[in-house]
Write a structure and sequence with these properties.
mainly beta, Immunoglobulin-like, seven-stranded mixed β-sheet, 3% helix, G protein-coupled receptor binding, Arrestin-C, Arrestin
């Protein structure tokens, strides 16, 4: 039998304990893994109250420690509540993980599960600057068990000792099938020239894994009397914060210049490689860090933080003026080999 770790958090009063079999839940684009777990309940300490669990997806834009004037630095994007004690659905189907947890917890275990909609963002955070304090701005997911009379009465005060919570992550992996990459071209004519500079750029595949070099093929047909002095290849991260407004931030996460000369009335073709790495961007404020990886967001029409990338190829031409073409880029992580099954639990 294999041994698996279980994540556990107990309330300050010891009357409830939250158990999860994992903290990473995969978004398959058309569906999201069910978030399920168990709450161990000691009925003797409830004093007539019930036990609820909620799963919340929230956008945070400041440190909770700064909440000194009643302002909220956290806004819920989506939230769902379930009552686990007294149980309201005693015949609900239990997952293999829940069955294993209930054997470990005993008769006081109460199972719960949540099904997330597909339009929620993945877990991400905006990297703070070197002098920024507090929590980073971003999107996170929280599972919380608590004692209360009702699930979500804003007038009911719930003390911290009556709660226990665990942070989870919603993540994405690259699809198994990788398609051929995008291609783009542009022609630019300069003053005092009759013919243009033609630039074409292409990627060899649609999806690249984090840490892998990105191969960009560049083709140039220079029909002018000007000389191309250098070629710059860069990767930009575009972050759309689609919540309190529709702000878009663009950060260059990788850029290299190549001293290739393309003479007048000549052609050129060559492939270049660049590798964007988070380790090279740790001093840049507002670079998005996927809590799993810095990944492209594979959804549309969602709230929160939406991440995309693009490759820019720029020809630097003598006498001033650049020729630039852009390509969409998808950066993701491969699906790990093998699947976990819950045979034995280590709490």
């Amino acid at each position: 039998f294999s041994l698996f770790r279980v994540f556990k958090k107990t309330s300050g009063n010891g009357h409830i304990a939250l158990y999860l079999g994992k903290r990473d839940f995969v978004d398959h684009v058309d569906s999201v893994e069910v978030v399920d777990g168990v709450v161990k309940v000691d009925p003797s300490g409830l004093n007539g109250r019930k036990v609820f669990v909620y799963l919340a997806c929230a956008f945070r834009y400041g440190s909770e420690d700064l909440d000194v004037i009643g302002l909220s630095f956290r806004r819920d994007i989506w939230i769902q509540y379930v009552q686990v004690y007294p149980p309201v659905d005693g015949n609900a189907t239990k997952s293999p993980m829940q069955e294993s947890l209930l054997k470990k917890v005993g008769e006081q275990g109460c199972p719960f599960s949540f099904k997330m909609p597909t339009n929620l963002p993945c877990s991400v955070s905006l990297q703070p600057g070197p002098n920024d304090a507090g929590k980073a701005c971003g999107v996170d997911f929280e599972v919380k068990a608590y004692l209360a009379n009702t699930a979500s009465n804003p007038d009911e005060v719930i003390e911290k000792k009556d709660t226990c919570r665990l942070m989870i992550r919603k993540i994405q992996y690259a699809p198994a099938n990788n398609k051929s990459g995008p291609k783009a071209d542009i022609s630019k004519q300069f003053m005092m020239t009759d013919k243009p500079v033609n630039l074409e750029a292409s990627l060899e595949k649609e999806i690249y894994y984090h840490g892998d070099p990105i191969t960009v093929t560049v083709k140039v047909k220079n029909e002018t009397s000007k000389v191309v002095k250098k070629i710059r290849v860069s990767v930009e991260q575009l972050t759309n914060v689609a919540l309190y407004s529709s702000d878009t931030y663009t950060k260059t996460v990788c850029s290299e210049e190549f001293g290739e000369t393309i003479n007048a009335n000549s052609t050129f073709e060559k492939s270049f490689q660049i590798t964007p790495l988070l380790s090279n961007n740790k001093e840049k404020r507002a670079v998005v860090i996927q809590l799993h990886t810095v990944s492209s967001t594979y959804h549309k029409e969602m709230q929160g933080i939406i991440v995309s990338y693009k490759v820019k190829v720029t020809l630097m031409v003598s006498g001033g003026g650049d020729v630039t073409v852009e390509l969409p880029l998808t950066l993701m992580s491969p699906k790990p080999a093998g699947e976990c099954t819950f045979n034995n639990l280590n709490v």
